[in-house]
Write a structure and sequence with these properties.
mainly alpha, 6 helices, 5% strand
Length: 177
């Protein structure tokens, strides 16, 4: 969940700073940053009117197309978007996020180049089945950098090896596919 400071900060953002709000109800507070406890999605067999929990911050310094890509990648990695799920149309998502259609199109095109989604003529973009890239040793090496940061932070918090391992095991249980 989010700390009170994060919730207060998210609620205090103006619509010019935080897009992706429901246009019909101005009393609704803006969506908080992506959290697996708050993510809702629909299992698709066709285009749907369901909203993806995406949020863009134009003033963040990160290009908007990149924010969209990163959040879609996170939804795929967490299993919230599964192979076969259809993404909303470019027009639908751009209207929801209040961004230019070319921005959403660029994000979708980059995801397609990366092999994460495929264009289905007459239907839209569909999430592809993900095949691991590289050997197990290569993938473990990529993970090692993140593990180093985790261990360093655990040490800074004065946690023992067993406490750090317990936290990692807990995360693994929470994120089982």
């Amino acid at each position: 969940m989010f700390s009170q400071d994060q919730e207060l900060h998210a609620r205090s953002l103006s619509t010019s700073e935080c897009r992706g709000r429901d246009k019909t109800d101005s009393s609704v507070s803006p969506k908080l940053p992506l959290d697996s406890a708050q993510v809702h999605y629909y299992r698709n067999t066709h285009m749907h009117d369901g909203r993806l929990p995406l949020l863009v911050h134009p003033s963040s310094g990160v290009p908007i197309y990149r924010q969209i890509m990163d959040q879609l990648r996170a939804l795929m990695a967490s299993g919230r978007l599964r192979a076969g799920d259809l993404l909303p149309s470019v027009r639908q998502l751009s209207a929801e996020l209040e961004v230019n259609m070319m921005t959403v199109s660029k994000a979708f095109a980059r995801l397609e180049q990366d092999g994460l989604v495929e264009r289905i003529r007459g239907t839209g973009m569909r999430v592809r089945e993900q095949q691991p890239q590289g050997s197990v040793a290569d993938r473990q090496e990529q993970l090692r950098d993140h593990g180093t940061a985790l261990v360093t932070q655990g040490r800074q918090l004065s946690l023992t090896d067993d406490q750090i391992l317990s936290a990692v095991k807990s995360l693994l249980r929470e994120h089982r596919p």
